[in-house]
Amino acid sequence: MNQANVAPRVGVVMGSRSDWDTMQHAVARLEQLGVPHEVRVVSAHRTPDLLVEYAKSASARGLRAIIAGAGGAAHLPGMLASMTPVPVLGVPVQSKALNGLDSLLSIVQMPAGVPVATFAIGAAGAANAGLFAAAMLAPDHADVRAALDAFRAKQTSDVLDHPDPRQP
Ligand code: RP5
């Protein structure tokens, strides 16, 4: 799929440019699997008006999932989820002070009625959020489904083909 000419189906947002080191792992998976996406810095605390605008326009713009990464007092995923019917996938960014436990608890402990699907702290969580968003789209996008199937098959064969960890 030529992503340049296709409306984004997944939004990847983060609270700060400093989150990019983590969130690039979500974007890498979306690119690998051919998922049309967009990437933005949207801060719950520094740009609250932008947050509202992004959340309220997301569904009408065709987004089918929003991957939201934030660290520390990580309100971004929950606030997005409060203002859009689009499923929000939260990625806790590893903070300096508390290693991301603050981010994880801020994102995962949502009150009943406003769900955020919360992933692991850091790069693994971001990568899995990208894969999860692709899986959400796969039933309606045969090319994404085929790419996801191929990714998983290669992941499996990479392990089975190299059973001895002492060998390269
Ligand atoms: C959060 O504060 C961001 O998501 C980031 O993880 C954290 C620190 O932001 P910076 O001070 O590095 O911009 O809002």
From TrEMBL:
It catalyses: 5-carboxyamino-1-(5-phospho-D-ribosyl)imidazole + H(+) = 5-amino-1-(5-phospho-D-ribosyl)imidazole-4-carboxylate. One of its GO terms (molecular function) is 5-(carboxyamino)imidazole ribonucleotide mutase activity. Keywords: Isomerase, Purine biosynthesis. SMART domains: AIRC (SM01001). Substrate binds at residues 16, 19, 46. Its EC number is 5.4.99.18. Pathway: Purine metabolism; IMP biosynthesis via de novo pathway; 5-amino-1-(5-phospho-D-ribosyl)imidazole-4-carboxylate from 5-amino-1-(5-phospho-D-ribosyl)imidazole (N5-CAIR route): step 2/2. The keyword Protease does not apply. It is an enzyme of class 5 (isomerase). It comes from the Bacteria. Pfam families: AIRC. GO terms for biological process: 'de novo' IMP biosynthetic process. Residues 8-159 form the PurE domain. PANTHER family: PHOSPHORIBOSYLAMINOIMIDAZOLE CARBOXYLASE, PHOSPHORIBOSYLAMINOIMIDAZOLE CARBOXYLASE CATALYTIC SUBUNIT. NCBIfam families: purE. Catalyzes the conversion of N5-carboxyaminoimidazole ribonucleotide (N5-CAIR) to 4-carboxy-5-aminoimidazole ribonucleotide (CAIR). Belongs to the AIR carboxylase family. Class I subfamily. This is N5-carboxyaminoimidazole ribonucleotide mutase. It comes from Arenimonas metalli CF5-1.
